Amino acid sequence: MPAAITEEQNRLDREALLDAAERRFYERGIQAVGMDEVRAASALPLKRIYRFFPAKEDLVVAVLRRRDRRWRGDLAARVEQVPDPRERVLAVFDWLAEWFAQPGFRGCAWVNAHGELGPSSEAVLAEVRSHKRAFHDQIAMWVHATGVPVAEPVFLLAEGAIVTAGISGDPAPARHARAAVATLLGAP
Prior knowledge:
This protein is elongated. With 188 residues, it is mainly α. It is built from nine helices and no strands. Helix content is 75%, strand content 0%.
């Protein structure tokens, strides 16, 4: 009889599975990547994968949820180092510019997932909406601290920069959006 799988091994296997799925979904698209490819990349048997996630949709939601925590956490860690509220808001766009310039940048994982599955998957749509609300709330909190009531335009400029950079493959939209936000916020 095989040895029981420990909680630690479950955690490690689940993380390896999420890493493999996230990398492939982001690089090639969710629908283009089959579960056999995820199995091969994670080195886990399909039976084990389906114990973690009974359906591919469950795996997609878990990937998006984990990516959200990491993505927004990385953004907050960078932005909250900046003491001045106005400069903190502008730091959002500096962080975006760095993200856009990373090798393999393919735009917003949530917009991509919505484009592929949003119309047919309530669970994916809910996760995408949750991420966008949370990102909006982060932006609104930082903008509110400036005392200038421009949270909505700042959020839309960030979203527009992300989509435009994803399509164009050029990090310049972050710089252009930053300049527009600096104008909205007024002189320091």
